[in-house]
Amino acid sequence: SGRFSKPAEKKTGITFADVAGQDQAKKEVAELVEFLREPERFEKVGAEVPHGVLLMGPPGTGKTLLARALAGEADVPFFSTSGSEFIEVFVGVGAGRVRKMFEAARKAAPAVIFIDELDSIGRTRGTGLGGGHDEREQTLNQILAELDGFDGKEAVVVLAATNRPDVLDPALLRPGRFDRHVMLSLPDKAARRAILGIHARKLPLSETGDLDTIAAGTPGFSGADLKNLLNEAAINAARRSDDKITGSDLQDARDKVMMGTVRTLAIQP
Ligand code: ATP
To answer: How many CA atoms lie within 13 A of 136 on its CB side?
Structure first.
């Protein structure tokens, strides 16, 4: 069963400076850095810091990035898994994996656990084909049990990400579980410019490669889309055997990513 589980990252090397925009979300998550750095300080005065944080927002807005940045800022190990890894595994396997991951994180504490795509396991129970006794439900129950098992002192912060908070089992959102909610949103023009800036740092842009223009022309693009756009533009430049990325490379890449987005949206139910 170790086949799917990722080894913990000892150091993510990611900081809040790597996350552009999302100021409110960063602020809320940053409150946990001090706790992870010096849990004793909080324990001494009997302060119980929330363990479960739900990151909500559209795909590609930086939920995973923000979770890794929290671990990086606090300089603690990062354990991660995705809800989609628990689909179609044998009964008991998912729950076992969850248990092992929490056990490892508790041993390594202070630590951060990240569960991506929580909705793929955390949907309202009792609606599965297995009449409510399916594998997914066991995995979900294990996550609930682990969250309930924290004694308030263990310095393990559990972040989970979803773009479908509406389908989550309300049991996940109860006090002591994922009771802190942080919203991430699609970037506005200034944030898009900042995201482009971060990902273009190491790219050779020609004078025509103006990121302000691209930021203005990409409403609705997520951070992930913008990163894709820059990569597409670099591929364009390489195809032309150019060593600089030009304005038209960027425009062509923008159109391509936009078409891709349109197509993806069109096939969704
Ligand atoms: P999903 O819901 O699809 O899992 P997500 O919200 O977790 O997406 P990430 O996986 O963190 O999004 O984002 C994908 C990539 O897009 C990141 O690795 C990062 O390079 C880039 N990115 C997204 N948002 C930002 C941002 N605010 N600042 C800088 N880069 C970003």
So the answer is: 24
